Amino acid sequence: MEQWVTAASALLAFLLYYNTLDAGFVYDDRRAILSNPDVIGHTPIKALFENDFWGTPLTDPGSHGSYRPLCVASYRLNYALSGFKPWSYHFLNILFHSVATALVVTTARRLLPAYCTRVGSAVAGLSFAAHPIHTEAVAGVVGRADLAACNFFLLSFLLYCEHSRLRNEHQRKPCRHITKDLTHRQLSINVQILRFSCHGFFEQIATNFRKLLKASKIGTPVMKTCDVDSGTLKLKKCQCNSDVSAYSYELMQWFTLAGTLLFATAATLCKEPGIMVVPLCILYDLLRDTRHDESSLKGALCIATSARTAASCAASCSTIPLSPLNNM
After folding, report:
1. 3-state secondary structure string, 49-101?
2. pLDDT per residue over 61-106, tens digit each?
3. Band of residue 268 on the pLDDT scale cut at 50, 70, 90
4. Non-local CB neighbours of 145 within 8 Å, separated by 6+ positions
5. Which of 55, 76, 118, 151 could form a disulfide with 36 if both were Cys (CB 3.0 to 4.6 A apart)?
6. Contact 13/97 with Cβ under 8 angstroms?
């Protein structure tokens, strides 16, 4: 069902703008494409990273200042494949819009509550595909900067969501081995409500890189045993303490975080507002960790209350005097 919603939304996005394939170059398309030396190949590839969106050097006083080399590179690719035939430029715009619609459905499915995931993701995808606010971006070739930035923006955010999921799952993963009684457990609550670190856009990169270098030194897990009275009880390997499992999570966290930064950079190089995915990831991490810490605090308080009640009951029962047997 979920795949059908994604496919239907992307197909609707394509069909609604299919008629733009017969359109030509209009307004800013002429200056950005027809008269842009970076598009028609009159300049070397490195000039894409030295000129602005319109082909003017950034050091020129008359430069517009818009720095979008990846978008200009896509125009150059279109020109290399089909010259100045406008249908190929419009086709790539429609394709970008369809992919962005599919990514919106995936993002909605990731963020919405479980009870409204199906309906909510369908509404989000179909609304995004058909909303008239996207007409200028899709129908005009220069609107590709918005379309490409939107795709990289969503990819970056989705990768960070996966990074956050892997990190939290690894931290909460229970150790499946024999434990002591509840009365011997020590309960430790460490709540960080206002944690605003994004868990490593800078410091976790270095941490994960060190763990990446240690991955080649992983050894095989050792089977643990413990003696119980006269017998020996063999325990299965503890999944929580397994080096292989731990390092696999660390590697996945590293790759998803690196992908987040890579796509965030690509979104910015398509259009400047793409950099806003970084504060969005920080805000998402803050809200997610706050909610997780609050739920963990509630669960910990419930366990502590239960343990305290059980201990009080045991203490009160031990103080009750026992009647002599001869009085029965």
Report:
1. HCECCCCCECCCCCCCCCCCHHHHHHHHHHHHHHCCCHHHHHHHHHHHHHHHH
2. 888 788 999 999 999 999 998 888 899 999 999 999 999 999 999 9
3. very high
4. 53, 68, 71, 270, 271
5. 55
6. yes
Alpha-carbon torsion, ordered 68, 69, 72, 74, to 10 deg: -110
Q: What are residue 233's DSSP bridge partners?
A: 226
**Residues in Cβ contact with 229 at an 8 Å cutoff, skipping those fewer than 6 apart:** none
Q: Is the pLDDT of residue 217 over 80?
A: no
Question: What is the SS3 assignment for 121-164?
Answer: HHHHHHHHHHCHHHHHHHHCHHHHHHHHHHHHHHHHHHHHHHHH
Higher pLDDT, 254 or 318: 254
Neighbours of 204 (CB within 10 A): 17
Residue 115 has pLDDT above 70, yes or no: yes
The C-alpha atoms of residue 64 and residue 73 are separated, in whole angstroms, by: 18
Of residues 74, 221, 56, 200, the one with CA closest to residue 143: 74
Q: How far is CA 152 from CA 97, 166, 267, 283, in A?
A: 12, 21, 5, 18
Phi, psi of 184, rounded to the nearest 5 degrees: -100, 0
d(CA 200, CA 197) in angstroms, rounded, equals 7
Tell me the helices (H) and strands (E) count for the chain, helix number first: 10, 2
3-state secondary structure of 231: strand
d(CA 189, CA 301) in angstroms, rounded, equals 9
Spatial separation of the C-alpha atoms in residues 309 and 111, rounded to whole Å = 38
Whose CA is closest to 75, among 96, 100, 60?
96
User: Which pTM value belongs to this model?
Assistant: 0.70
CA 25 to chain centre: 36
Residue 319 has pLDDT above 90, yes or no: no
Task: Examine the pLDDT at 271 and tell me if it is beyond 70.
Answer: yes
Return d(Cα 51, Cα 57) in angstroms, integer: 4
Rg (CA), the chain: 29
